[in-house]
Structures are given as structure tokens and as C-alpha cells.
Specification:
It is a single chain. A hairpin with a 2-residue loop joins strand 2 and strand 3. A four-stranded antiparallel β-sheet has the order 1-2-3-4, with no helix packed on it. 39% of the residues lie in helices and 23% in strands. The protein is built from three helices and four strands; from the N terminus they run H-H-E-E-E-E-H.
Length: 123
């Protein structure tokens, strides 16, 4: 008779509704997503000018292989030709006649403008 009472007590203590495992999985996913968003915000705050510099522009890029390319960059209104490999960057020459910048797609311009907006502080 005591065994029957023990099993009835154990049966009444189980949670009703969603199982505890599903709630744990959902909370874990929410915390991981919050961590990713928080780290992205932190990187943006610490170094907001990654790839966005008025003094340095990539004018053209020509892939030579899977990981090698030629770059024409503009620094101080002078254009330079660079050879880029995974191991190093080689300065090749300064261009005598400047090249025009290649036109980028409107979507790329809009995305770049959106990503480089300054963050506003609310008090």
C-alpha cells in the first residue's frame, strides 16, 4: 500500500503544460541570440570605422586567382597599384593617370550608407 502512495505522489508533481525541456531550449536559444546581438553592438561601438575611411579608397580590384588580387587604391589623391596575396601585400607602382571609380550597385551604396550611420545617444 505504501508503494501505491509513492507512485501517486510522483505522478502529481510533474509539470502541466509545456515541458521543462522545451522551455530550457527556448531560453538557451534566446540567450545565444542576445549574446550575438550584444557582441555585434559592442564591435560596432568599439571600432565603428572598420572599412570606412575617407582617406583610403579601393578604386578597383582584379582577382588573379582564388586568393590573389590586384588592387588600385587611392591615398591622398594619388592612386597606387598593390599586389595582394594571403601572405603579404606588395607595393607595385604609383599610377600616372588616375582611374575612375567603378560604379557600384544602388543596393550596395544604400547598404553601405545604412551600416555606417552614426549611433545616436539618448539621455
Amino acid at each position: 500500500m505504501t508503494w501505491i502512495l509513492f507512485t501517486n505522489v510522483a505522478a502529481t508533481q510533474q509539470p502541466q503544460g509545456p515541458s521543462l525541456e522545451i522551455v530550457t531550449v527556448i531560453l538557451s536559444l534566446v540567450s545565444i541570440i542576445a549574446l550575438i546581438v550584444g557582441l555585434a553592438w559592442l564591435v560596432k561601438r568599439v571600432n565603428p570605422n572598420v572599412g570606412n575611411n575617407q582617406d583610403f579608397k579601393v578604386i578597383r580590384s582584379l582577382p588573379l586567382g582564388t586568393r590573389e588580387r590586384l588592387l588600385v587604391i587611392e591615398i591622398d589623391d594619388k592612386q597606387h597599384l598593390l599586389g595582394v596575396t594571403p601572405q603579404n601585400i606588395n607595393y607595385l607602382t604609383e599610377l600616372e593617370t588616375p582611374l575612375s571609380e567603378t560604379q557600384t550597385a544602388p543596393f550596395v551604396k544604400e547598404l553601405s550608407r545604412f551600416m555606417n550611420q552614426p549611433t545616436t545617444k539618448t539621455k
